[in-house]
Amino acid sequence: MRDYIDLINTVGDEYGEELRRILEHNLVDEDVHTAWFSERLYDYEQLDLGKL
Fold it and tell me: Model's pTM, two decimal places?
């Protein structure tokens, strides 16, 4: 996600607002994935499924 933030901050107007919106959308999507995976790890820890 850090790479998306750096790229968003680097992309200039010459690339257009559309590219910036796409990158911002992808950043949000990656954040959602990270949160989902964190929740699944928590679930596995609570169910003690890691020992299977």
Answer: 0.69
pLDDT one-digit tens code per residue, 1-30 = 888 899 998 887 788 889 999 999 999 999
Q: How far apart are CA 45 and CA 38, in angstroms?
A: 11
CA dist., res. 26 & res. 35, Å (int):
14
**From the CB of residue 51, how many other CB atoms can be counted at a distance below 10 Å?**
5
Q: How many other CB atoms are found less than 10 A from the CB of residue 50?
A: 8
Q: Are 30 and 2 spatial neighbours (Cβ–Cβ below 8 Å)?
A: no
